[in-house]
Each structure stands twice: as structure tokens, then as C-alpha cells.
Design goal:
three-stranded antiparallel β-sheet, methylation, Glycoprotein, Type 4 Pilin, mainly alpha, 3 strands, 1 helix, cell inner membrane, single chain
Length: about 140
């Protein structure tokens, strides 16, 4: 080989990877992904459940403040919307009791609220990822009681 000035350029002796070497690397990466992937997604499910528990706790505190001001928890018909709007036109209402709108649960479903509750003054819960009663792990119901 020569360049424009007549000088010879050194020939490079680079070697590529063989198909076998590439396949071995791909198998190793696949094994690592098969081991790490499920553990990673399990942690995501746990964090969603922890987020739901924290939100239910926060909503419960807002409901308690509502009860202190008004004298009772909002009815099931009024729902959690009573924390941000005076839906009953109650003179004792001193809200809003939340800085933002009532959030959905981490699975983008509304929290379920019932007052009077079966487990206390009110029941506040999420049905989890599967949106069905019961379940385990990330499909487990997250409840206030």
C-alpha cells in the first residue's frame, strides 16, 4: 500500500473474534441476565408495594385530620375526593387536606375507600398489581388495617 506521497503504509494485522468466541460471550451474558433479571424485577414489585403502603399511610393521616375538623370521616359516597374539595358543603371543613390530588396506587388504579369500614372507622386499600382480592408478593392487597 502507498499513500499519495509514495510512502508505504504499514499493514495492520488485526484479527476479529471468531464465531465461537462471540457465541460463548452471548451465552455468558444470557446466563447473567437470566440470574439478575428476575431479582431486579422482584425488587421493583417490592418498591411498588412499599409506595402503596406509604401512600395509604399518608391518606390515612389526611383522613384523620378531616375527622378532627369535621367530626367524622367522609362517607363512602363522598370518598377520598372530600380531602381536596368540600363535597358536603360542611362549614367545619378546613381543607384541602392534601397538597395534590388523591393519587392512584402504583398500578394506576384508584385506592378503594369505605366508611364506615369493616375493619375500623374506615377501610382504605389497594388490590395490588392483579386488581383482585387476595394475592401474594406484588399481587398482594395493601390495606390500612
Amino acid at each position: 500500500m502507498s499513500n499519495l506521497n509514495g510512502f508505504k503504509l504499514p499493514q495492520s494485522k488485526t484479527q476479529g473474534f471468531t464465531l465461537l468466541e462471540l457465541l460463548v460471550v452471548m451465552v455468558i451474558i444470557g446466563l447473567l441476565a437470566g440470574y439478575v433479571g428476575p431479582k431486579y424485577f422482584e425488587q421493583i414489585g417490592k418498591s411498588e408495594t412499599k409506595t402503596a403502603r406509604a401512600q395509604i399511610d399518608s391518606l390515612g393521616k389526611a383522613l384523620d385530620q378531616y375527622r378532627i375538623d369535621v367530626g367524622q370521616y367522609p362517607s363512602s359516597e363522598q370518598g377520598l375526593a372530600a380531602l381536596n374539595k368540600n363535597v358536603a358543603n360542611d362549614a367545619k371543613w378546613s381543607g384541602p387536606y392534601l397538597k395534590k390530588d388523591v393519587p392512584n396506587d402504583p398500578w394506576n388504579k384508584p385506592y378503594l375507600y369505605k366508611s364506615p369500614g369493616e375493619h375500623g372507622d374506615f377501610d382504605l386499600y389497594s388490590l395490588g398489581k392483579d386488581a383482585q382480592q387476595g394475592g401474594t408478593k406484588e399481587a398482594e392487597d395493601v390495606v390500612s388495617w
